[in-house]
Design brief:
alpha+beta; asparagine synthase (glutamine-hydrolyzing) activity; glutamine amidotransferase; amino-acid biosynthesis
Length: 566
């Protein structure tokens, strides 16, 4: 099956400035699709256009976008993502495809069922821009968890600019006297605009089409079939295994080599082990490559080695020094478009491992364990939740905010190097099922977080037992040497760069989300240098709940017990 892989999308409707001038902004996201670029004007609308960066795939004839087909000459589609159930939907509705691209399903669904139904039937990750010239409409949409990014800029006079990353919009020329607001598009929503003859637009509705707790509309077309609905422990564990395996299997849809990030923690180990198992079943012609990053003696690298030996992957260990980490910081913040402390800190390792994958291997599609901690209450602070209800509510809050934090980190650090991320823990059906379970079942048990998830895979020998029951390490903590952490080295560097009086000035200098630590101040300075006045892209800093914390690192929490102390 051919599909559009990782890419960058960009579009303007009603541009106030000559398109050839604006076009240079689209080049800012070239890393998302390093193999080809296309710029296309829209017939009869001189100030509307699409820009598309593509990561090469197998279908050279139809892989480029905007995607248009003879059957619907009035529809133009630019999208970034994968639609895992496009073949099931094609068969169910008996659609007559003209290309081999998964995104073609959007055109048929929209034409037959309208935008709301179209969006809610898509099982996958996506950000789309759909233009309907027959009905003079523009639609934007983004997947449930915002795994694929999308930003929009809308001026007072109806000029709309849209891009995969905010950096493609910051230099857009418009006729307003003050800077135009650039906002992340809300996950799980679509927006409808009326398109005027002038090319300008007017927003007419913004609606949710799926929330993480709703059973997805597309579940009926899913290959996992119907599941037992009672909450008996064995039935629940069975369902968790079925749905998780199904989530990994549907994400094997790829014509480029598949690899997997492997930190040695529970989540990435389950993903990697299931991926290797299914790759054999599906008879993939190559060995799955796994990638660990960290210092030689770091707990994560040692654990990842054990998992790789157990599952039989082609394992790579990527080492980085604190100096390399510090050198990469500015570039990382530039790609992230964020100054959140835990996001930046954890992104350095992921950025460097992605760089290694791009330069030294031929793996392009990269599986990863993001989303599990939010879904299964994996953060250490969940031990302090006052009630199961409070824990369940916080789990949902974390999932809804993923697009500002871990999912943002995972997308930008991999896309920076032209890789394409797949996150099976954020499968719509898997997450909706897990969130439907009784609140008491999902909380930490016997002093172990994610107890239910671990228990579901007990006794299967999928991963070594010691890994199945391994306590959580924060990513930025687990990759560092036990002797001296990357965190400590980073703090020492920052201490030499930021003095106490500067930190005292922080609330005046940065009134929105003022940093309270030197590290936060240092990251914010770099962010403001590249994106002045854009601090509202994140609404708050990621912080643990229910405990007095000034730092988001697990290692600095009083509940944190490294394995060796237990």
């Amino acid at each position: 099956m051919k599909q559009s892989k990782m890419c960058g999308i960009w579009a303007l409707f009603g541009s106030d400035e000559c398109l050839s001038v604006q076009c240079t902004c689209a080049m800012k996201i070239g890393h998302r699709g390093p193999d080809a670029f296309r710029f296309e004007n829209v017939n009869d609308y001189t100030n509307c256009c699409f820009g598309f960066h593509r990561l090469a795939i197998v279908d050279p004839l139809y892989g480029m976008q905007p995607l248009r087909i003879k059957k619907f000459p009035f529809l133009w589609l630019c999208y970034n993502g994968e639609i895992y159930n496009h073949l099931q939907l094609k068969r169910h509705f008996k659609f007559d495809y003209q290309t081999q691209v998964d995104g073609e399903i959007l055109l048929h669904l929209y034409n037959q069922n309208g935008i709301q139904e179209m969006a809610s039937l898509l099982d996958g990750v996506f950000a789309f821009i759909l233009l309907d010239t027959a009905n003079r409409k523009v639609f934007l949409g983004r997947d449930t968890y915002g795994v694929r990014p999308l930003f929009r800029l809308l001026t007072d006079n109806g000029f709309l600019a849209v891009c995969s990353e905010a950096k493609g919009l910051t230099q857009i020329t418009h006729s307003m006297s003050e800077p135009a607001k650039i906002t992340p598009f809300p996950p799980g929503h679509f927006e409808e605009f009326d398109l005027k003859q002038t090319g300008k637009v007017k927003s007419v509705r913004l609606e949710s089409f799926h929330s993480c707790t709703d059973k997805p509309r597309h579940a009926v077309h899913d290959s996992a079939g119907e599941l037992a609905t009672d909450f008996a422990l064995e039935a629940v564990k069975h369902n968790i295994r079925i749905l998780f395996e199904n989530a990994v299997r549907k994400r094997l849809m790829a014509h480029r080599r598949i690899g997997c990030l492997l930190s040695g923690g529970l989540d990435s180990s389950l993903v990697a082990a299931t991926l290797v198992k299914l790759a054999k079943e599906e008879k993939l012609q190559y060995q799955i490559q796994t990638f660990a990053i960290g210092a030689d003696d770091s707990p994560d690298v040692v654990a990842a080695r054990k998992v790789a030996d157990h599952i039989g992957s082609n394992h790579h260990e990527v080492n980085f020094t604190p100096e390399e980490g510090i050198c990469a910081l500015e570039e990382v913040i530039l790609h992230l478009e964020s100054y959140d402390i835990t996001t930046v800190r954890a992104s350095v390792g992921m950025y460097l491992v992605s760089k290694y994958i791009r330069e030294k291997t031929d793996s392009v599609v990269i599986f990863s364990g993001e989303g599990s901690d939010e879904l299964t209450q994996g953060y250490i602070y969940f031990h302090r939740a006052p009630t199961p209800k409070a824990a369940a509510e916080d789990s949902e809050r974390l999932l809804k905010e993923l697009y500002m934090f871990d999912v943002l980190r995972a997308d930008r650090t991999t896309a920076a190097h032209g890789l394409e991320l797949r996150v099976p823990f954020l499968d719509h059906r898997f997450t909706a099922y897990y969130l439907s379970l009784p609140e008491e079942m999902r909380v930490p048990k016997d002093g172990v977080e994610k107890h239910l998830l671990r228990d579901a895979f007990r006794g299967l020998n999928l991963i070594p037992d010691e890994i199945l029951w391994r306590r959580k390490e924060a990513f930025s903590d687990g990759i560092t040497s036990m002797k001296k952490s990357w965190y400590t080295s980073l703090q020492e560097h920052i201490d030499s760069q930021v003095n106490d009086s500067e930190l005292e000035e922080a609330p005046n200098l940065f009134p929105y989300n003022p940093p309270t630590t030197k590290e936060g101040f240092f990251f914010r300075q770099i962010f403001e240098k590249h994106y002045p006045g854009r601090s509202k892209w994140i609404s708050h800093y990621w912080m643990p709940r229910w405990i007095k914390a000034t730092d988001p690192s697990a290692r600095t929490l009083s509940i944190y017990k490294p394995d060796k102390d237990q």
